[in-house]
Write a structure and sequence with these properties.
Largest sheet: 5 strands, antiparallel
Order of helices and strands: HHHEEHHHEEEHHEHEEHEEHEE
Distance between the termini: 94 Å
Number of helices: 11
Strand order of the largest sheet: 2-1-5-4-3
Length: 450
């Protein structure tokens, strides 16, 4: 039975460098040359003194030439190595100068310098493309996000940062799963999706496209908030309707009120017995109902006359305190520190009063309404929590004239959302997850601390 032997790998000797090989070959060549010269001198007719003088000089020259050649090669190679290292590290400013344009080394230097120029131009082109992409994203009026082929966020504009209430530096480098955008990006481009971002929710139109930059494939994602646009159109339509109704009703009711009041005055003064008591009651009823309708239409026309907010530095804690003092009920304010925001104090206090009143009416007398706020980089989030039965199953909570209360007017929530959006913020109502009740959440952007 034969025994197989494993082949022992041979140890590879380290190869000599080019400059060492040139050095040794030059040294060997000069040594052979000197040996021949020495033999000729020995057999020549020259004196011993001449031979003893010439031979050391030849030896010195023969030894110095290889060292000179090795040093020359090392200088050229180190110069090339320094330039190549700079190119590898992204520094394209270093160049190699050629003393003799006709030499082969000068040709190598020119090629290296040409490569450095090409790489520098390519880097400038890439930088200009990055700057152009940043400026284009900044000009978009909708949130824009750029992902690479590994679904890592590589760029985002300011509108996109506002959706997450984080800075651009904190968002770059995060994956789709970390941003909770997997389900959103799974839809096709052009679809309308219901989605909640950390600081805003609603209906979004998804737009996806792809582009190539620096040899890599990127995905551009645009999300357009359709809810705000639809609500703005809806608000404008309601305002037009309210103005028309208010104008026509006011004109008619004002005439009825004036006539009925004049007739009642004459009847009281003349005390005409021909008028029966039932007719007096009829005129009084006309007068009362026309006045009631006038007050009703005046309250609704306020929706169409809400002025633009006059923003000024306002203390949120004082606004909350004033609103709680104006309403009956129990309140538990979770924050005590002062917080300055840019807002219209009158409109913001009207918003708080309406929301707090709804929360008090929904809660029991033994359960206080909880009020708290949090400050983020992009703004402030105010939350009002009640202990009621939660939200009703209805999509009409923010529709004017719609109400679930027996004596409600149906303009409170619509007016509150109009005030919030006129400040550039949002208002949403959600059910509580910790216990039974509802949360009214107001987001006010661009707050400044004192």
């Amino acid at each position: 039975m034969g025994i197989s032997r494993s082949a022992t790998p041979k140890t590879k000797r380290p190869s000599r460098s080019l400059e060492s090989a040139v050095f040794y070959w030059a040294l060997f060549t000069h040594a052979a040359f000197l040996a021949c010269i020495g033999a000729l001198l020995w057999h020549s007719d020259l004196s011993f003194l001449a031979v003893a003088t010439l031979l050391p000089l030849l030896v010195m020259v023969g030894v110095s030439v290889p060292f000179y050649l090795r040093g020359l090669l090392r200088r050229h190679f180190f110069s090339l190595a320094n330039v190549l290292e700079s190119l590898r590290n992204g520094d394209f400013s270093m160049r190699v100068s050629a003393n003799n344009p006709a030499s082969a080394w000068s040709e190598v230097y020119r090629e290296i310098n040409g490569l450095a120029d090409s790489l520098q131009q390519s880097r400038l082109t890439d930088l200009e493309a990055d700057i152009l992409l940043d400026k284009l994203l900044a000009e978009f009026d909708v949130p824009a996000l750029v992902f690479d082929r590994n679904q890592i966020l590589k760029n985002i504009n300011q509108k996109g940062c506002e959706l997450f209430a984080k800075s651009k530096e904190a968002l770059l480098g995060l994956q789709v799963e970390q941003l909770h955008l997997g389900q959103l990006l799974a839809h096709d481009s052009g679809e309308v999706i219901e989605h909640w971002f950390p600081e805003r929710g609603g209906r979004w139109e998804l737009r996806k496209n792809f582009f190539i930059q620096q040899g890599q494939r990127f995905m551009l994602v645009l999300v357009n908030d359709l809810s705000r646009a639809l609500r703005e159109e809806e608000r404008i339509a309601w305002q037009r309707l309210i103005r028309v109704l208010g104008h026509e009703l006011n004109n008619s009711l004002a005439s009825l009120t004036s006539v009925s009041e004049t007739l009642l005055t004459h009847l009281e003064n003349e005390k005409n017995e021909k008028w029966h008591e039932s007719q007096m009651r009829g005129l009084s009823l006309i007068h009362q109902r026309s006045n009631s309708l006038l007050r009703f239409t005046e309250s609704y026309t306020q929706l169409a006359k809400l002025p633009a907010p006059k923003k000024q530095p306002s203390d949120l804690s004082k606004l909350v305190q004033t609103a709680t003092e104006m309403l009956p009920g129990q309140f538990e304010v979770r924050n005590t520190q002062s917080l300055m925001i840019d807002a219209d104090p009158d409109q913001l206090q009207l918003l708080m009063i309406n929301l707090l009143k709804n929360a008090v009416e929904a809660s029991s007398e033994s359960s206080p309404v909880e009020i708290g706020w949090n400050q983020f980089r992009q703004g402030v989030r105010l939350q009002i929590k009640d202990h009621g039965v939660g939200l009703p199953v209805s999509d009409n909570l923010f529709v004017p004239f719609y109400t679930t209360k027996e004596n409600g007017s149906g303009i409170g929530l619509f007016l509150c959302r109009q005030i919030a959006e006129s400040h550039g913020g949002t208002l949403k109502l959600v059910d509580r997850t910790d216990k039974q009740g509802c949360i009214a959440e107001v987001w006010l952007p661009s707050s400044t601390t004192s």
